[in-house]
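Hello again, I could really use a second opinion on something today. I've dropped the whole record in just underneath, so have a look.
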Amino acid sequence: MTYLEAHITELALDFFIENQNSLLDYLEINAMLKEVSGINNFFTSQQEATKLLSEVRESQSIVSEPDRREYGDFQTNRDLALQVAKYSFIKNESIEFVLEPTCGKGNFIFASISQFKSLKKVVGVEIYKPYVWKTKIGILTYFLKNPSKSKPEIDIVHGNAFKFNYAELAESTKHLETLVIGNPPWVTNSQLGSIESNNLPKKSNFKKHSGLDAMTGKGNFDIGEYISFTMLKCFENHNGIFAFLIKNSVVKNLIQDQKRNRFKIRQSEKLNIDSKKEFNVSVNACLFLTHLNKEPDFTCKEFDFYSREYITTFGLYKDKFVYSVEDYDKSSIVDGKSIFTWRSGVKHDCSKVMEIEQVNGHFINGLGEKLNLEKKLVYGLLKSSDLKENKTNVFRKLTIITQTKIGQETNYIQVDLPLTYQYLSLHKDFFKKRKSSIYKDKPDFSIFGIGDYSFAKYKIGISGLYKSTHFTLVCPHNSKPIMLDDTCYFIGFDKLRLAEIAHYLLNSDVVQRFLKSIIFSDSKRSINKDILMRIDFEKVFGICDFEIAKTKINDLKIEHWEEFGAMLKENINEQITLF
């Protein structure tokens, strides 16, 4: 049977049947339940006790559980909860107080009660009332099965984790060895807001973003990060452990922000879990465990949760935030500022019209239409998936480039290229449907990410979508430069030898190790402009040897090498753009 949507175990049901007369006085049954299970205020009113009495007598059927998406609810299975509790026990076997701020069905609480023999107090907070009852009944069942087990004082509170007074709880428990444990929601505030959830924290700029950042994307924080931040702020002065199952991105943010927050945490660990296996969701997640009330440090060791195999140490090192302290230590010499401006490729948001293929001498667009176009505005196009080779001038797709710089008028197409103009005009509705504001009030058939740099004869490109840090040298096709799309980043050169030297430097061991040391591969866009702009070509060039380089670059002469070095020195004090 169920009570308020919580399934009552057979053992618990037998207990309530046996003591059903006591349900007529909720204070009497509460006292009995306190003695049996340690739970304070099992029933908060006579109405609750009377309802259970009624359902016990009527033996009502099980009620199906509603969708919990708005709460970001991924309930932790009992085995995983027990493994987390056991690992926490290894770190501190003297835990006296356990807090789970979003306790759900109580699996972490059950695991902690069974694992820690020194427990004196347990507090769980849960907004969903059926889960509150499920947890209470589960605890009652545990102690009915294990009557000789010592019973800590237990409070399972029906309340909102964002409104609960954790500071007051922290003050009253500061003398106890503490374990803050759990699995907070894996959603962002905007995701909850989009489905009109009331399960949101009071609006506050808790990450202290300024101006525009606070109003745009950077103000969109993860709910798990908010709860983690709150727990660390309230309980950092407790002796004990913090152990949360959270998204990898949350751990990265917590460690990255540690320089500002300076929470009293140390010996932090990130243990990667298989969230598909554990929760049947495709999210990069982990157990984040750290020790409370310690001198703050700013790095975190990463392991595999199941094998405990060491992966890396990431965090603040040499005043930089890095993914691998070990690799950065051996490659930080090239960390600086690139004199070449890395660009993203051309963007049009109209692929069915603007991207074409050449088949049997004819152009065919994404709609399957055969086209008759002048060739002047048609360029080869490479996407991220095409940047696999060391060097290429081969492409699968072509694209129409209507402008040479952003905002350029496109009236010239009607006069100079009537076939192209007729084609674009026939498909004008596709351009009008583009949603991005970058095209608003711009000339017809406008594109973005275009400039003099787009027409450099030689480009060195890298994918912004994939995890590979391999750079590809892109050469012109029939003397015409090849374009890259907006999923790629590139720098450009007019001379082949200069491009070949830059390409060699970027694929050198020291640069590859440096990129490995600073890139978090599980980030949504792990390779971006900020990352690439940290490659200091002058420093890389300074530690590379011409004699080794000429064994890698065909027909490389010392004058080419010296020309590249002179170019770097001329621009050492300022960032430049070479097309």
Summary: Confidence is low (pLDDT under 50) at residues 59-64, 189-197, 209-218, 573-579. The chain is about 35% helix and 20% strand.
